[in-house]
Amino acid sequence: MRLKQNRLHKYVHMSAGIKRDNEGGTCTEYGEPSCFSAEMWSAGGKVQTEQYGDRVPNIRNLRIDGRYSEISGENGKLMYSVEKGPTITVNDGICINSDQPDYKVIAIYPYSHLTIEVEKI
Questions:
Q1: pLDDT in tens, 94-117
Q2: HSE on the CB side for 33, CA within 13 Å?
Q3: Beta bridge partners of 14
Q4: Domain layout of the chain by residue ranges
Q5: What highest taxon heads this organism's lineage (predicted)?
């Protein structure tokens, strides 16, 4: 099944990593940007409302265009590599409205098209 071309938009993915400072605190550091095309819509429906409750207005769904494959990363972390695109895992940053990550990946669903749920940071 193909996605309708007039619904596809370009988004930017940045992989997340944990950085420690001199005092032992941690913060999220984002890697190099990579582009992908996807269809986006707001969260809604009975299941997402029950799952996220009051957070639903901050949730978006992205259906990524292109083939993908599952990869087992470090520490058994499951990653998804999109053909001609990024390798996506939970907690990575997605740039939707700005040049810096303004959403983070909270769930990945490997359906016929890779579908991810992102939440506003």
A1: 999 999 999 999 999 999 999 999
A2: 12
A3: 33, 93
A4: 5-120
A5: Bacteria
